[in-house]
Design goal:
Elements: H1 4-42, H2 50-65, H3 71-78
């Protein structure tokens, strides 16, 4: 039974890193799509308008911001739950 805890910990680590890997691949794919669109817009020496630049910038920012987990997701990853009892290190003695 004591050998089970390290094995479970290893599996949790494997699956957590797999989730990050999948998220990063999705973001990289979005950035490559934007790059392809910029390259196409510039093809043949065309000048990109300010509106197009703003649109590309917004898409890049959106892709990069999607890489930052929202507050609720971070709390779940840490195990925070406002409805649960505080852990031993969080209890106030007094």
């Amino acid at each position: 039974m004591s050998g089970l805890a390290p094995a479970i910990g290893a599996f949790e680590l494997l699956f957590a890193s797999r989730g990050e890997w999948i998220r990063n691949i999705a973001i990289l794919t979005k950035l490559y799509q934007i790059y392809d669109d910029v390259e196409y817009a510039c093809a043949g020496g065309k000048v990109i308008s300010q509106n197009q630049l703003d649109e590309f910038h917004g898409r890049i920012q959106g892709a990069l911001h999607s890489s930052i987990p929202d507050k609720n997701e971070k709390e779940l990853q840490r195990g925070d739950n406002p409805e649960s009892e505080p852990g031993p290190s969080e209890r106030v003695i007094g």
